[in-house]
């Protein structure tokens, strides 16, 4: 992309915007091929109870290892998949694979652990999420009680009454609904009472700031108080340090997720570590979290 200008200086002859557009269209075409080939895999990150560090859920996080580019972050490819509707086909694979994997772990003897799957707003708009999720559960044999769906705050506040009804129907079946990245979508706290949710996942930015800023700490405390009053469970995302763990525990968060407990890991690693020991406790910190 760089061209020698003859004066010993390299000049990028396409403006930055052009490069961004080129990468976007390149990734879009690559994504199309990857979706057709199901060229993805899932990593799993534990969400643990704050009191005893027992695993409650694994969040399924999608990974794309591109043959030339290497790992491409979901932060980059999920929005492209959404804008192109490729997320519909990719999302089918993600839900099926996540439920299939958890059902397999259950069948191998891991009982109480549940799976949490991110669902995009595009998937909610294009068809009945109720029919789709229930069909996937039937296909994989996973029980509704073992599934949580994560929908971001910004998606939920835009959701129309039809989508809200679909989510309510799923809750009646025993499926858990979480509001993801809470605190970034600018909903008012009062809307929490009306949303069809069971769990609040507080965005990592609040956890990062709470130890440094009184303002963030106060917001965090308010969210926890209100959540508790509404009977919601609260998960703190992105807990990296023991001090953050202690803080969220003190103010009433029910569960934590973050590098302190474990990074997202491959299904093989999770399977080996959990099934060999036949445990679901991840107490401890950092990478030693598995050694109990
Ligand atoms: P998310 O759903 O909020 O997922 C949590 C993200 O935070 C994950 O990033 C996870 O690896 C990261 N994380 C967890 N603990 C820590 C920590 O202690 N410190 C830091 N710095 N990060 C932590 P990841 O896997 O890169 O995914 C990013 C986002 O991409 C997700 O945010 C989600 O919005 C989206 N995404 C990933 N997989 C899927 C998927 O299967 N479907 C959809 N619709 N979106 C997905
Ligand atoms: Mg999530
Ligand atoms: Mg999140
Ligand atoms: Mg997040």
TrEMBL record:
Residues 24-278 form the EAL domain. Keywords: Membrane, Transmembrane, Transmembrane helix. Coiled coil: none annotated. This is Uncharacterized protein. It comes from Pseudoalteromonas translucida (strain TAC 125). The chain holds residues 343 to 634 of 636 of the full protein.
């Amino acid at each position: 992309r760089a061209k020698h200008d003859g004066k010993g200086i390299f000049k990028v002859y396409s403006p930055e915007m052009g490069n961004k557009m080129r990468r976007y269209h390149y990734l879009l075409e690559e994504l199309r091929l990857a979706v057709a080939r199901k060229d993805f895999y899932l990593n799993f990150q534990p969400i643990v109870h704050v009191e005893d560090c027992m695993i409650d859920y694994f969040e399924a996080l999608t990974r794309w290892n591109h043959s030339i580019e290497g790992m491409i972050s979901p932060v980059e490819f999920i929005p492209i998949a959404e804008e192109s509707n490729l997320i519909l086909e990719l999302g089918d694979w993600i839900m099926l694979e996540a439920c299939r994997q958890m059902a397999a772990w259950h069948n191998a003897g891991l009982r109480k652990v549940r799976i949490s799957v991110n669902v995009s707003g595009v998937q909610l708009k294009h068809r009945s999420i109720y029919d789709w999720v229930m069909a996937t559960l039937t296909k994989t044999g996973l029980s509704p009680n073992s599934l949580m769906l994560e929908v971001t705050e910004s998606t939920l506040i835009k959701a129309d009454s039809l989508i809200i009804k679909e989510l309510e129907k799923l809750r009646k079946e025993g499926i858990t609904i979480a509001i993801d990245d809470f605190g970034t979508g600018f909903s008012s706290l009062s809307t929490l009472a009306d949303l069809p949710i069971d769990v609040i996942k507080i965005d990592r930015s609040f956890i990062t700031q709470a130890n440094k800023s009184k303002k963030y700490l106060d917001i965090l405390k308010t969210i926890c108080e209100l959540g508790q009053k509404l009977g919601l469970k609260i998960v703190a995302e992105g807990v990296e340090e023991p001090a953050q763990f202690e803080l969220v525990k003190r103010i009433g968060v029910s569960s934590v997720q973050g590098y302190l407990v474990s990074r997202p890991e491959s299904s093989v690693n999770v399977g080996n570590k959990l099934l060999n020991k036949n445990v679901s406790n991840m107490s401890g910190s950092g990478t030693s979290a598995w050694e109990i």
